[in-house]
Amino acid sequence: MSETAGAKIPSDSSHLDQLVTAYDVAARVRDRLLLGDGWLRRWSTTWRVGAGEVCWPVRDMAHVPVLSSQPMRGFTWRAKQRHRPGLEVMTSTGRTHGFESLEEMRLLVALDFVGASEVLSQPFRLDFEHVGGRSWHIPDFLAVIGGGMWLLDVRPMELVKDDDALKFAAARETAAACGWRYSVVAGWHPHVWSVLDHLSSRRRPARDLLGMRDQLLTAVGGREGRVMAFSELAEATSMPSVGRANIVRLLWQRELGVDLGSPLRDSSLIWAV
After folding, report:
1. How far apart are CA 137 and CA 127, in angstroms?
2. Are 74 and 95 in contact (CB under 8 A)?
3. Do residue 175 and residue 81 come from a single domain?
C-alpha cells in the first residue's frame, strides 16, 4: 500500500517477530543436548491440571489439555525481591495474566496488541537431558496467535548465561517436536516499546458518544493517498483534544496505522487500514 511505503514497521500489519529482537541459540549449544533415539520419550513435561500435576513425555504433548492448565509457579511479592512480578490485563483474552518481570509484562502488552487469543504464563516444567546430566526449565509463556501455538521465553540479551542458553535450546527442540514456534525475546526494535506503551493506554473499551471513530476514518479515508499527520487528523474532528485520544485507540485496534519504528509525534503519518 502506498501509505505504508516509508514505514519501517507498519502497525496495522506487523507481527510479534517484527516488534522484538530474539536471542538466537547457537548450534554448539544444541549439540550439548541428548537428542538421540528415544529422546521424545525420555524428555518429559509436567503440567498443573486441576488440583494436581500431570506428567507427559514430549512425544505425547498432543494429548495435553493445554488451555485447561494452570501456571506452574505463583506470582508472589515480598520485601527486597529483585524482580517485579504482577498481573497484566489483556483485552484480547479478557482476563489477567501473571508475569515475573517488567520485561515479561511488556511482552504481554505486545501479545495483546497482536491479538493473542490465549496466553498461559509459566505453562509447564520441561525435564531434559544433556551431556552434563539432567536439567529442568519452565518457559515464560505459551501463546495462541492466529490459531498457532508460540512458546516464549524472555531474557534481556546481556543477561543470557550458558545455562540459560542450554535451557532455551531444549525448549526450542520441544516446541519444534510439538509443531509450535519458539522465541526468546531479548529486546525490542527501536521505538517499538515506547509507541506500544502509549497505544496501550487507550486499549480499554470506551463509549464513542461524539462519533469520533467515523469522523477520523472519514477524514483520512477520503484523503488522496490516505495519509495524514497525527495533528492534522486530530484537527479534522469536531473536538481535536478528544480526537487525539481516539486516534490512539484506533491505532491500538488496528483500524488506523502508524510506523512503530519511529517515535509517535504530531508529525507521524497516519493511514486508514
Report:
1. 7
2. no
3. yes
Q: Does the global pTM surpass 0.90?
A: yes
User: Amino acid letter at 144?
Assistant: V
Is 199 found in the same domain as 171? Answer: no
Q: DSSP assignment of 198-261, as one string?
A: HHHTT-S----TT-HHHHHHHHHHTSTTSEEEHHHHHHTSSSHHHHHHHHHHHHHTTSEE-BTT
Structural domain of 113: 32-188
Tell me, yes or no, whether 21 lies in a domain: no
Report how far Cα 159 is from the mean position of its chain's Cα atoms: 20
Per-residue pLDDT of 67-89, as tens digits, reads 788 888 766 666 666 667 888 99
Query: Residue 231 — very low, low, confident or very high, per pLDDT cuts 50/70/90?
Result: very high
Alpha-carbon 198 to chain mean position: 16
> Which residue is associated with the grid cell 509459566?
122
Q: What is the dihedral of CA 176, 181, 186, 188, to 10 degrees?
A: 160
Does a structural domain hold residue 175? Answer: yes
In a domain, 173, yes or no: yes
Rounded-to-integer distance, Cα 184 and Cα 238, Å: 45
Kindly report the CATH number assigned to the domain that includes residue 75. 3.40.1350
